[in-house]
Amino acid sequence: MIHGFARLALAAFLTGSISGPVLAQAVYVVSQEGGTLTPVAPPGAAIPVGKGPAQAAAGPDGRLYLAHPDTHTISVVEGSPGRVVARLPFAGQPFGIAVARDGRSLFVGDWSGHRVVRLSSATGAVEGSVAVGRDPAGLVLDGRGRIYVADRESRQVSVVDTATMTRVGAVPVGEGPFALALNPAQDRLYVANVRSGDLHAVDTATLAVVARAVLGGMPYGVAVSDDGARILVTNQQAGTLVVLDAALSPVATIPVGRYPEGVAVSHDRAYVANWFSDSVSVVDLATLTETGRLPVGEGPRGLAILSPSKEAP
Questions:
Q1: Which of 134, 137, 192, 227 is most buried when burial is the number of CB atoms within 10 A of its CB?
Q2: Residue span of the signal peptide, if any (predicted)?
């Protein structure tokens, strides 16, 4: 059943009546138990993608790539019209995933193999591999050709040069690092540590921790506003989205659904995947309030932002 405010939010999306700029980007959520990929902004029909998708990443060509840890595959989905066009085999347990800026390669964290693998996005052929810490979770790629990897059971972030597929650094962080996000300038990497209940800011030039915020609970997802002024962290245990400024001082705590996990920013809104509520919260970044909650498939966990007009360099 759609709650009243969710119905209003959905109608506003469809009619374009929500204030702010028209979104050129499209926001998708992965539902692990439901086996679906659902567009939530603008809203659309759920796309069946197969068993257990855990994370998704968007390429520059209108495609999304989904990691399926249990079936050892990666689904390739055309965002429009919305269909699975290929399944790439993966010799391991794929979890975190990122796409090269030119769209030709994928970078996949092998959860059980403690490595990151570079694959051809067209064929799935292995192009390189590098050992990292235990249970690599979130991956984020910068503009200089480096991948940052949250090594959950090693209490560190590995730094990998994607050209040579070698590990060039490791940054000690909190306990249970899971999600990562870069600011727009890419001089700060934010690390959400699930078990120690804190957030670290890492200087990407020196690979040193320069700030820490104690949040409590279970910080599970992290994202940064387009202007870099707001850091958004989901607190799974508390059912909230915590907003901090760039110095990691608290700004607001916003109630969302139960067990929020992934969070993503598209222009003036944030989207939060509420794992136990089977919904996505829509948060207005100007007012710092939840303005809608959209029902999606069972067990939403990860989000991806697709920019169809984006051109690879």
A1: 192
A2: 1-24
